[in-house]
Model the fold of this input.
Amino acid sequence: MDLRKENENEMLKRMIEDELRYEEMELEKIKTGLKDVKELVLTYSKGQFHYRKKSETKYRYIKKSDRDLLKKISGIRYMIEKFKILESNIRVLKILLSRLSDYDEEAVYNKMPKAHRKAADYLRETAPSEKVIQSENPKHREDLTKTALDGLKLRSKNELDVYHVLKGYDLNVRYEKALVLKERIVMPNGEVVEKEVTVYPDFTIILPDGFKIYWEVCGLYDKPSYRRNQFDKFNLYYDNGIYLPYNLIVTMESDEKPINMVLIRRIIEAEILPRIKECSK
Done:
């Protein structure tokens, strides 16, 4: 199975779906903002601004000092133009999704001539098995219910989606790889002692030169207890030289604000790929 090709197909569909959902949300916001708002027609001639309501024919002069009125008129027009663009984008995305054909291993296999299918059968049967390194986190193993295309077990759908995107870029990535850090504890007498503590970052991305980037996919950010635990973890990271944007990436989500896979790709292309390019020089 060509895992990368299947990942690319899944990623493409999810990216389009994520972008469609995001633009539909933006459209709803604009609809709410434009509710009961009347568009005003603005003109500019010989250094002067004039405006009128659409239902009127007579223009009124606007003093350049009346910035609030100019801002209001321009703001309404901006939202109207954005509304048009979003409506057009949504139509295009829906058409693209409806026309995007699935291509999995079986579908491609059945299109191949008989001799090539036999060769593929032989190669599949005799290929050495590749073992995927699973999570090293011993806690709550029963929560590892999401299965990636390569067999990796993960805890959430968003982690699964991010993992597929990372693998689609051929990155050397480990899920919940053990990381031993030093935690500083202040004793009642004021003495500071250190102890070792093991954490399990969601993803550890290992660059060709051995440099490691840690990626935390933070869900449930609308829950205060979850946020507190995450901030404690970030403080521990900081004390050990792991911080944004040097070697830590943090993406956050809640039920109302899910992770956008388009943004995940942008982060990878802006933060990780340039570093890999530097390694190869």
The CA atoms of residues 101 and 107 lie 11 Å apart.
